[in-house]
Specification:
Structural class: alpha+beta
Distance between the termini: 48 Å
CATH superfamily of the largest domain: Electron Transport, Fmn-binding Protein, Chain A
Shape: globular
Strand content: 15-25%
CATH topology of the largest domain: Pnp Oxidase, Chain A
Radius of gyration: 24 Å
Bound molecules: flavin mononucleotide
Number of domains: 2
Helix content: 25-40%
Number of helices: 13
């Protein structure tokens, strides 16, 4: 069952004993971060938190709502987010059903599901527009926006769904890009160079026109997840959210910009960016665990803020892993694996360990079939959407459990001749990479940790991994209890 809105999701978390209310006042300036950071680092991710009195603001603040495997799965309406990967795999199955009856049995449910995906458009006002601030009344001071870390350049909206449209095609994009508050009606817009929002703005810059922007907070949590998902440009996040929640997203017109926004959102911030205007954004304590450096980014001038009468402000903090956003990343790893396999069927599994903060380390398991296969997979991944940011790709054989980082390090150490089995390439890197020679441009390395073939010039014998003989294992199983160990 889809959630009716963000507060419906919070109620469900509370019923499950997975949300803790905090009644006493906790300051939005660093203190909520300190509390939330400690909770996010508890074994299993701690509970979601509802700060009923964040600083001197009347609006409550919810945080860590995606911060465990269970809550991330609940956010997507499933018992475990692996189910969504299975569903996608099933949808992508290329087999043509044999016979009319099988066709009806297999294809009709798929078509019924897909018919629920596209968003529905309604005339307003939506629930997100119960309270409207416009003109001189626009004031971000009504929202409990966090200053997360001591060296941050200011307060940041940390869980924003940023809606824009392509100036040529009119296609919508929704991305999650942090928003720095400059004053009551002016903010930054941290869409990085390679992201779709930035590409939309470049299109408006060419036409010398301002770009309309709507920043949405809340709504069904499937919407929030969709804004973070690395969907190819042109695939509508609201369509994807409809697929995830198995119910169309309802959209209503924003008040002052030409954008349709989710009717069930808690808060909508509307505004315009003049592509020729930039201002210093940052520093910001980022998900790398380091501060991302200040840099020039576009400036958003607000035209309206709308919200529900009893809105709850959704937030997160990022920092040294493990953090809440690690679960958003894990969900993406699992949900997008079938799509990666569509292009690269030799990939059997992948693990983007949380310490690798999504784009630093990818552990990939393949069925190796021919000389150079591992290198082919690395290059293909570096060419695949946001996988282009992966700084280190390690390719393993099919008998390796890539979910076991210890096993991967053991194989990495043993199986490579560094000069022969690594491949360094240059290209785009994540804008948050502070070690690269230039912002957004640097190098990436691949490690071929698979067994080596004669066809790769390997003339020596490749040794077996040590394992016990089956008969001995069976015998010891039989006497194990007697040994009292
Ligand atoms: C909590 C969180 C904060 C993020 N902040 C930013 C950000 O400030 N700038 C950015 O470009 N990407 C940020 N991202 C990553 C993007 O949301 C992600 O790459 C997304 O797929 C971009 O969407 P797009 O492909 O439609 O541009 C963030 C992700 C999360 C989970």
């Amino acid at each position: 069952m889809a959630y009716t809105d963000f507060q419906d999701f919070l109620s469900r978390l509370e019923r499950e004993g997975d949300l803790k209310r905090i009644a006493r006042t906790v300051d939005t300036d660093l203190e909520i971060t300190e509390v939330s950071d400690r909770v996010m680092k508890m074994p299993g991710g701690g509970p979601a938190l509802l700060f009923e009195h964040p600083g001197n603001c009347e609006m409550p603040l919810a945080i860590n709502v995606f911060g465990s495997r269970k809550r991330m799965s609940m956010a997507l309406g499933v018992d475990d987010f692996e189910e969504i990967a299975c569903e996608i795999e099933n949808l992508l199955k290329p087999e043509v059903p044999r016979g009319m009856l099988n066709a009806a049995r297999e294809l009709l449910p798929k078509l019924a599901l897909l018919s629920k995906c596209p968003p529905r458009y309604q005339t307003g006002p939506g629930r997100c527009q119960e309270v409207i601030m416009q003109g001189e009344h626009v004031d971000l001071g009504h929202l409990p926006i966090l200053k997360c870390w001591p060296q941050d350049g200011g307060k940041y909206i940390t869980l924003p769904l940023v809606f824009t449209h392509d100036p040529e095609t009119g296609k919508r994009n929704v991305g999650m890009y942090r928003v720095q508050v400059y004053d009551r009606c002016t903010t930054g817009m941290h869409w990085q160079l390679h992201k779709v929002g930035a590409e939309h703005m470049r299109g408006y810059a060419e036409k010398r026109r301002p770009i309309d922007v709507a920043i949405v907070l809340g709504g069904d949590p499937a919407l929030t997840y969709s804004a973070t998902a690395p969907l190819p440009a042109g695939i509508d996040e609201m369509l994807f959210a409809g697929f995830l929640r198995k119910k169309p997203v309802t959209l209503v017109p924003a008040i002052t910009v030409d954008i349709q926004v989710p009717e069930d959102a808690e808060i909508v911030i509307e505004g315009r960016i003049d592509p020729s205007e930039q201002r210093m954004e940052g520093p910001f304590g980022d998900h790398t665990g380091y501060y991302s450096l200040a840099d020039m980014y576009p400036v958003l001038h607000l035209t309206a803020i709308t919200h529900r009468k009893k809105a709850i402000y959704p937030a997160t903090i990022v920092g040294k892993p493990p953090m809440e956003d690690g679960w958003l990343g894990k969900a993406t790893e699992r949900i997008f694996l079938p799509l990666v396999k569509l292009t690269l069927p030799e990939i059997l599994d992948m693990n983007l360990p949380v310490e690798g903060i999504f784009h630093n380390i990818a552990l990939i398991k393949i069925r190796k079939r021919y000389p150079g296969h591992a290198f082919k997979v690395m290059h293909a991944l570096w060419g695949l959407g946001q996988m282009m940011f992966t700084k280190m790709i390690m390719i393993f054989d099919e008998d390796v459990d890539v979910q076991n980082v210890g096993e991967c390090l053991w194989r990495l150490g043993n199986n490579i001749d560094p000069e022969r089995d690594t491949c360094v390439v240059r290209g785009p890197v994540d804008m948050l990479d502070h070690a690269s020679r230039l912002p957004g441009y640097g190098s990436k390395i691949g490690f071929d940790c698979t067994h080596k073939l004669a066809g790769e010039g390997f003339q020596r014998e490749w040794p077996d991994v040590i394992t016990m003989r089956e008969d001995v294992i069976r015998k010891v199983n039989g006497i194990w209890k007697e040994l009292g160990l």
